[in-house]
Amino acid sequence: MLKSLEIKNFRCFESFRLEQLGQVNLLVGSNNSGKTSIL
């Protein structure tokens, strides 16, 4: 299970961090915002 996620200099993300992820996670955003890049 993921506990945190940090992305730097990947596709459209300069710096991005998520902490304390629960058991259910949703990725919501407009088109071309990087949702698929995280997957």
TrEMBL record:
SUPFAM superfamilies per the UniProt record, alphabetical: P-loop containing nucleoside triphosphate hydrolases
Pfam family membership, one: AAA_15
Domain annotation Endonuclease GajA/Old nuclease/RecF-like AAA: ranges: 1-39
Top-level taxon of the source organism: Bacteria
Protein name: AAA family ATPase
Organism of provenance: Planktothricoides raciborskii GIHE-MW2
